Every structure is written in C-alpha cells, then in structure tokens.
Amino acid sequence: MIAIDVKAGHAHKQRDDAVVLALLDGRKLTESGKALQQETGKQIPSFLRKFDHSGDFGVSGTLYDLEGTFTQRVVFFGAGDEKKLTLQKLRQLASKAARSLQQSGARDVSFYFSELGVRGATVAEKVQALAEGVWLGLYTFDKYQTKKKENNRDLRSITLMVPSRRDLDECEAAVARAKAIASGTNFARDLANEPGNVCTPEFLGDQAAALVHDKLKVTVMDKAAIEKAGFTALLAVNQGSAKEPRFIVLDYQGGQQADAPVALVGKGLTFDAGGISIKPAAQMDEMKFDMCGSAAVLGIFKAAIEMNLPINLLGVIASTENLLGAAAYKPGDIVTSYKGVTIEVLNTDAEGRIILSDALAYAAEQKPAEIIDFATLTGACVIALGAQASGLLGTGEDVIKGLEKSGEYTYDRVWRLPLFEEYQEQIKSQIADIKNTGGREAGTITAACFLSRFVDDIPWAHLDIAGTAWDMKGTDISPVGATGAGVRLLIDYLCRKL
Ligand code: BES
Ligand code: MN
Ligand code: ZN
After folding, report:
1. pLDDT confidence band for 300 (50 / 70 / 90)
2. From the CA of 339, how far away is ligand 2's center (Å)?
3. Could you identify the atom of ligand 1 that is nearest to the CA of residue 287?
4. Residues 208 and 291 in one domain
C-alpha cells in the first residue's frame, strides 16, 4: 500500500508533482482553491472558463505550469454539490483521484479534500474516509498476469492536506485507523480473489496460522483432528471432495482475561459446485468466492491486531469444498451434527448452513458475549438486496442495532430481515430434527432459521454477504472481484464498544 501522510500548508507552496483540489458544482473553488487563485493571478479563472464541465462529481481537469507555484500540475477534481457530500462520497473522490493520478506519471501528490464540508463530520473522520478511499481504490489483484503494464513512474505518496496544524495529531491517528482497516479489507480480498485451486481449506488454514501474534493464538484442525472433535456436519459436506477440510479457531486476547469475547464465525467454502445437487455451469467460477465469510473474519483479525484493539475476539471458521466425488453426501442423507441435532439433507447445495451448524455450535460452547457470523449463504439474498446491502438477521437486538448503525456510518451497508417464529415451520423435517432447505419462499430467512438452532441463547447476528462479497463490475472503491465486505463494518462496530 502506498504511503499516506497528513500536512497543513498552502497549495502554492507545495513542491509535489501534483496538487489536487476539489471543484464544486458551478465551477466553484474551495477555500484552498480561492487562496491559490489569489497567489497566482489570471491563469486559474481562464482555465476554469474553458473547462468543459462544471464540477460534476469525479470529472477532472489538469492545469500545467501554473505560475507562482512549485508544482508541475494542479488537478481540479469535480466534487459535485457540496451539500450532498458524505463520507462515502469522500472515499469515492479520493479513490478516483488516486486511480487517475496513478496513470499520470506523478509520484508524490497532495490532496486538498479534507476541507470539503460533510455534515456532522470532523476533519479526522473526513481524513479517515479519504485514506480508506485511496487504499481501497488502489487495490489490485494482478499476480497472475505475467505481462505487467509498464509503469515506470508509479505513484509513491499521497499527502492529505488538512486545514490547520491543530488537526494534525487527530488526523494522523485517523490515517493509522484507515490503514489497519484497509489492510484487513485488502487481505480479505486477496484471499478471496485467489482461485479455488490455490485457495483450498489447507491454504486458508495456513493463512490463518500466519496471523499469529503476541495476542493471537491460532489452532488449525486437520481432518483427523476434526474427526476426533466430532465436527460431523463439516465432514459430511467434505465427503465429495478430494481435499481435506479445516476447522480454524482464532483466539485474540486484547482485553481483560475475564471478559467474554465477541465470536466471529465464517463460512469457508473454497469452492461450491453444489455437490450432487449440482449448480448450473453459468458463473459457477464465481463460487470460488464462497469463502468470503471466512476471508472477512480473517481480515477483521488482521485489522484488530494492527489497531491493537483492546477487546477479546474468538474466530471460528469451517472450511471445505462442496464437490461431487464418489463418496459425496446425497439428497436424502441424514447428518447428525456436532451439537447432536439431526439434519435431513434435501439439497446438497444448501451446504453453507450445514458446515456453519458445527462452527456456530462450537462457538456457542465457548460462551462468548455475542456471536456474529459471515456467510455467502443464499442466492435469495442477492435477489432481495442485490449488491447494495448485506442481509442482517438474528436474535441479539443490541448486536443488530449496533451493526445497523455501523453499516450506515461505514457504508458497508446492511439491511435487516425478520426472523419471525412462524418461518421455523418451513425447516421442520418429517424424519429428522430439521431439513436443510425451506422451499423457495423467504430463502434467506429460512437459512437463518436453520442457523438459529445452533447458537443457544447467546445474542447472535447473521450477515448474509452473498450479494456484497464480490462484484464482477467493480465499484468506485473496489476493483472487479472480492470487496472485503464485512471488515469495515465490524471494525467500526467493535470500536464503538470501547
Ligand atoms: N453459496 C451459495 C449461495 C450463493 C449463490 C451465494 C449465489 C452467492 C451467489 C449457497 O451455498 C447455495 O448454494 N445456496 C442455495 C440454497 C438452496 C439450495 C436452498 C441457493 O441459494 O440457491
Ligand atoms: Mn451451495
Ligand atoms: Zn455455498
């Protein structure tokens, strides 16, 4: 990740390769823009007069060799209507600006964006959003492209200019927070973008083990250990795969020893072909992303370590492939889970809830203060909410309210669906305790009903990230592929507890 620092100072004095300013609707200059214009005479007004846009969001224009400055170029970046600015718009603006300067040949640049008005936000909050936007937006996953694009002068540093020296301390802390959050998010993206032949359950276990740290203990169970522990539901899904499963436990002790941890549980399907109830071929490649829940959990631990969060966390990940080998589990099979609950398998493609049943039951046994799980669980959630929000369901009212608040603040958004008692009817089995599908109606809800059977009475929230975990078009702050959904959300949620 490139270097970001914070400074206060006038635009006309900067010696960077580029000075980047915002331009508001109607070609209106910001305070820094006005100050620069005062120092430099007629060039800016005449440049802006010829400018063929009026400050529309994300559109830019470059003015070279502005007299009275020390920089090669001044770039005006449209920020749109100042009244409509939000922290998310700042992330997008910083990302767009960083991406466009990446191709310009400039190495060291300064952004005058933190002076833009966002209702209710402090300078430090704006700086954090800007830094997140830069680091999230510049993320790439190109390790498998053997012919790299020639870029002889890569962007090297971005200075986020702040209005006053008094803001510097707080803004430096804000950049450090953004760095931890972005590195956790980008780590989750890296894991998820790996193809299924590289990112196997064993690989996930190794990646988790590599996070070990003074405050973090990691236990990775192989197949023999999983058999011994009795994670039979995970083993049932694993039957069709030639690769061993993994059960991963992370224990982060940042808080008081006696404090019950927040448990984070992740679905780690490194490839979901559907099993015997095989999926259609179209877009099946995207099912390498079916481990994004586990990637989010690992990304959150990475960020928590980097931020030295004073809180206890328990991570639990169940990981396997869902394939069609000769020993594969079949529709009609009855699986007795780790908790003892019997599951009638009606569709082998509803495998996520099956492996999560063991992970959640194990997490609940550890008596955490609350449980939050992350899973690319249902296609129905993609239909309901699309890519704009993760599904949120559960039994812990405070957890859910907290996640809703953090979702709004971070723009890693969530939307609640109900978990009415009546929906539980849909997963009643004639022959076992429960069945693993609840029919076409309310598919996201009945999947959550299934999970609810394994969390005892511990306050619990479930995040269905099926629609948000990856994006094959890419967004302003996330290129094509995994988005790292859930990491920003949870770090904010955990920080609000401190
Ligand atoms: N991993 C899928 C859910 C999924 C589908 C996520 C598409 C993202 C995009 C999950 O294991 C699954 O296959 N769920 C089934 C459940 C059904 C058989 C009850 C589904 O949603 O179709
Ligand atoms: Mn499936
Ligand atoms: Zn799946």
Report:
1. very high
2. 22
3. 1
4. yes
Residue 137: pLDDT over 80: yes
The active-site residue out of 28, 99, 279, 330 is 279
Same domain for 470 and 407: yes
Structure tokens at 296: 């989010």
Ligand 1 pocket: which residues have CB below 6 Å? Answer: 272, 290, 347, 349-352, 376-380, 382, 437, 443, 466
Give me the CATH number covering residue 467. 3.40.630.10
Q: For the chain, what is the domain count?
A: 2
**Residue 155's CATH number:** 3.40.220.10
**Which tokens is 98 given?**
């960083």
pLDDT, averaged across the chain: 97
Q: How confident is the model at residue 55 (pLDDT cuts 50, 70, 90)?
A: confident
For residues 410 and 349, membership in a common domain is answered with yes
CA of 475 to the centre of ligand 3 (A): 24
- If pLDDT is split at 50, 70 and 90, which confidence band does 462 have? very high
> Who contacts 120 (Cβ-Cβ below 8 Å, separation ≥6)?
none
* Strand blocks (E) in 323-450: 334-336, 342-344, 370-375, 390-394, 414-416, 434-435
pTM over 0.90: yes
Q: Is 294 in the same domain as 226? A: yes
Decide: helix, strand or coil at residue 218: strand
Tell me which of 349, 383, 462 to substitute to probe ligand 1's pocket, judged by most ligand atoms within 8 Å of the beta carbon: 349
Nearest to 8 by CA among 128, 127, 113, 165: 165
For residue 467, the ligand 1 atom closest to its alpha carbon is 8
156 and 203 assigned to the same domain: no
Domain that holds residue 51: 3-162
pLDDT, tens digit (0-9, with 9 covering 90-100), for 143-180? 999 987 766 678 999 999 999 999 999 999 999 999 99
- Closest atom of ligand 1 to 446 CA is 19
Do 194 and 251 lie in one domain? The reply is: yes
Residue 214 lies in a domain: yes
The yes-or-no verdict on residue 50 having pLDDT over 90 is: no
Residues 140 and 263 in one domain: no
- In this structure, the number of other CB atoms found within 10 A of the CB of residue 478 comes to 21
**What integer is the mean pLDDT of 216-235?**
99
Residue type, 373: D
